[in-house]
Amino acid sequence: MEYRTTDGRAVYRADPVDYNPVTKCRKVQERVWQDGKLVKDEIKEICKSKKTEMSY
Fold first, then answer.
1. What's this model's pTM, rounded to 2 decimal places?
2. Which residues sit opposite 18 in a β-bridge?
3. Which terminus has fewer CB within 10 Å in the chain: N or C?
4. Tens of pLDDT along 7-43?
5. Which residues, 6 or more positions from 22, have their beta carbon under 8 angstroms from its beta carbon?
6. Residue 56 domain-assigned?
């Protein structure tokens, strides 16, 4: 996915890198450019989980 500011000076882009079906985690590479210069480049892991609570 990609987002741009209305003036076009900043761009945010997230690209899928990997998926682990066992842990249900995805790795996504996030990049941010400002005025054509890369200012952020990192890989984040995003995991889906379910909250379970003990009830009586």
1. 0.73
2. 27
3. C
4. 989 999 999 999 999 888 999 999 999 999 999 999 9
5. none
6. no
